[in-house]
């Protein structure tokens, strides 16, 4: 480490430059991790909050299942009687347009979830009344909707039929497809889904988008699906049914992958050039008796110091910028994601540096004595 630390002090300008580049990559890594987590949270937080292990959809639906699946009442009732099924309840989902009645007449987009008011899917309100006491047209709104200026007691006109609903309570953060979630009694959801101004007809009664399930490990879901004409996915698998979730996740993963690949190339390129410039000094050390392993350890120690310091500084800046962005963009910082981003940057940077400093093994001691002249 003696040579590495002296080298860092002597060429501090050059190492500060590469450190600044690594720090900028670390900042981008934190920002991209926060945006990826924030976009995922904004897209599926309502699904994550469901007290269910699996969701069953219509077998004929494909792609974004929530917009293409229809489950009948008899289907979800039959699911409830199958072996290994602890609980089964209908779940409706619909993205609708609404207008806040009153002086402001504000326009809103809502992700309405239809549930049985007394069922296990009905959320507990943080304020106001529970859904079981909300009445036929009462709804619970998430904090995402509250931030739009909607409060308990407000009235909304929802959907093409202009169905009036009343906000009777609020819940925590919940969104679907980047739209704030609203929980409504299943009959009210059916009115909104089918655009019905009056009573739900018998043909539509009991219908829903999916079946929310609590399953034991003994439940034979493939056999039940085949029997009842459904397709069952676990809760995480249902995230892909959210509009745009798969495309967003794939895009962010691809961008982060390119970022880390670039970091390895940048660090490797810098230390390749640095090793070439130090051929005479390395040859002199070998002529004095230093082993190749010693010089390699010394060089990798140098790389590690630069990467650790630059990554720590860049992560700190990224956290500060992320904190400033919170609220103005779908940004969510998670300790595990930030730690992973920093660790990947260091590991891939070291991998690039290892390839670069392999040149040390080819440096001959005779070079120091002028054998190459």
Strand line-up in the sheet with most strands: 2-3-9-5-7-6
H/E order of the elements? HHEHEEEEHEEEEHEHEHHHH
Helix content: 40-55%
Coarse shape: elongated
Low-confidence stretches: none
Total helices: the number is: 10
Radius of gyration: 29 Å
Mean pLDDT: 84
- Total number of β-strand segments? 11
Q: What proportion of the residues form beta strands (DSSP E)? A: 15-25%
Kindly, what is the distance between the CA atoms of the first and last residues, rounded to a whole number of angstroms? 31 Å
Largest β sheet strand count, sense and barrel closure: 6 strands, mixed, barrel
What is the SS-derived class?
alpha+beta
Summarize the structure.
Helix content is 46%, strand content 18%. With 373 residues, it is α+β, with helices and mostly antiparallel strands.
Tags for this entry?
373 residues, alpha+beta, 6-stranded mixed barrel, 46% helix, 18% strand, elongated
Task: Describe, in plain words, how this protein is organized in 3D.
By secondary structure, the chain is α+β, with helices and mostly antiparallel strands. It has 10 helices and 11 strands. It has helices at 2-10, 12-48, 73-79, 143-146, 186-194, 221-228, 245-277, 279-287, 292-325, 335-357; strands at 54-58, 85-100, 107-115, 127-128, 138-141, 155-158, 163-170, 175-176, 179-185, 210-215, 230-234. It has a 6-stranded mixed beta barrel. A hairpin with a 4-residue loop joins strand 6 (155-158) and strand 7 (163-170). Helix 9 (292-325) runs antiparallel to helix 10. The longest helix is centred in the first third of the chain and has 37 residues, at 12-48. The protein starts with a helix and ends in a 16-residue tail after the last helix.
């Amino acid at each position: 480490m003696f040579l590495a630390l002296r080298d860092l002090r002597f060429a501090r300008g050059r190492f500060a430059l590469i450190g600044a580049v690594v720090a900028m990559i670390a900042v981008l890594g934190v920002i991209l991790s926060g945006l990826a987590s924030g976009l995922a949270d904004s897209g599926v937080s309502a699904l994550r909050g469901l007290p269910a292990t699996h969701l069953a959809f219509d077998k004929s639906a494909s792609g974004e299942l929530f917009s293409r699946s229809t489950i009948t009442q008899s289907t979800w009732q039959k699911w409830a009687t199958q072996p290994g099924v602890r609980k089964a309840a209908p779940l409706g989902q619909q993205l609708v347009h609404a207008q806040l009645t009153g002086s402001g007449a504000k326009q809103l987009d809502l992700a309405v979830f239809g549930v049985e008011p007394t069922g296990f899917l009905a959320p507990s309100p943080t304020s106001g009344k529970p859904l079981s006491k909300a009445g036929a047209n009462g709804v619970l709104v998430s904090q995402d909707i509250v931030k739009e200026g909607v409060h308990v007691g407000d009235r909304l006109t929802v959907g093409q039929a202009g169905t009036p609903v009343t906000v009777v309570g609020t819940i925590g953060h919940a969104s679907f497809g980047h739209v704030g979630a609203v929980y409504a009694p299943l009959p009210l959801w059916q009115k909104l889904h089918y655009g019905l101004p009056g009573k739900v007809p018998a043909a539509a009664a009991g219908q829903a988008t999916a079946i929310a399930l609590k399953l034991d490990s003994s439940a034979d879901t493939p056999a039940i699906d085949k029997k009842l004409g459904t397709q069952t996915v676990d809760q995480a698998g249902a995230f892909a049914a959210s509009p745009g979730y798969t495309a967003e996740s794939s895009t962010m993963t691809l961008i982060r992958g390119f970022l880390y690949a670039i970091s390895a190339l940048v660090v490797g390129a810098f230390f390749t050039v640095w090793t070439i410039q130090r051929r005479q000094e390395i040859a002199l050390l070998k002529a004095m008796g230093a082993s190749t392993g010693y010089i390699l350890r010394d060089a990798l120690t140098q790389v590690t110091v630069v990467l650790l310091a630059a990554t720590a500084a860049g992560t700190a800046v990224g956290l500060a910028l992320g904190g400033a962005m919170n609220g103005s963009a779908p940004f969510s910082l998670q300790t595990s994601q930030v730690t992973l981003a920093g660790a990947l940057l260091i590991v891939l940077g070291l991998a690039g540096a290892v390839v670069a400093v392999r040149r040390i093994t080819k440096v001959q001691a005779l070079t120091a004595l002028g054998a190459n002249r």
